[in-house]
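URGENT: need a sanity check before tomorrow's submission.

F., can you look over the Fructokinase record below? I want to be sure the sequence and structure line up before it goes out.
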Amino acid sequence: MNHPEERPKIFGTGLIALDLVIGLDSEAPVHSWAGGTCGNVLTIMRYLGWDAYPIARMNGDPASQRVRADMAKWGVKLDFANCAPVGHTPIIIQQIKRARDGSPTHRFLWTCPHCGKRLPSYRPVTQHAVEDITLALPGSAVFFMDRLSRAALTLAAEAAQNGAVVLFEPSGKSDEKQFAEAMKIAHIVKYSDQRLSEAGGAMTASTATLLEIQTLGSQGLRYRHRLDGQISDWSICPAFPAPSIVDTCGSGDWCTAGILALGAKQGLLGLKKMDAQGLSKALRYGQALAAWNCAFEGARGGMYLVEPREFQNQINAIMNGRPVLRTVVRHESTEPSVACPACPPSTQHILSAS
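Structure tokens as predicted:
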């Protein structure tokens, strides 16, 4: 086992939220887990053996307390989770349902199902936090961002200068100028075809992009790279068959984490030395994690049900085309309930299915 000082480090900023997961069983308790793209990726990276440092503005409200407790349980480092000025932690309600054909689907709610008011939304870290975090970045292997702000871009550029791989996972183009700046910093750009048809010139002379990944849902992903200095053609990686499809939410986050775990543990220098075979191995590992995740409710539900050793056995089975025998050996207690912060105190409702 690696000593703590030998673990690769990842810093990340972006959407770190409280996920409230309402499963198919309406009688089952609502799960409250740390979530959001950045929150999921960093927590998964810790599960895979890295030291993970989320950068956020948690203010101590019930939602942030639950997120911090969940992340701390997995060993995530919370040194920079309450950067000033602090604010409410975003809350996202995920409802898992059945489509007309019987397949599972999900939708997200951004308003309280009881009072109708909007739940707390994402607010980026500010320049106020940059100085302290910058001092901690040397030695990190990866900097992850899925939301852009002046502070996020400043930190990403600093991490890159210190030898970290910068991965940018946009959900859209809310600010064209900042998006263009991010493309000049990021070494890996990963996006879903459901959110962006293309990343807008990732592979140009003015960008730092070495690897561009477009995920295609159940069809897998396609990618191109210039690790050898020349822009490659697009290559397709078909998805692994999922052992079971209960919920697809979070599979993209598992894919990201798997790619980083194998492809970026030596930082930027290691990524630049990677050959086509090593890149393919990292991508396939990420896809295997994504397929595995489909068997569980919630973006990281499997982490709470499967022991790490059994997890690795199941991933190996997926990658080798063998049946996955789902052995659930970990039993979790019900998480604390979280009340809607917008409901009047006298009628404050516990957030759950309506």
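My own read: The two ends are 46 Å apart (CA to CA). The longest strand covers residues 91-98. If you see anything odd, call me.
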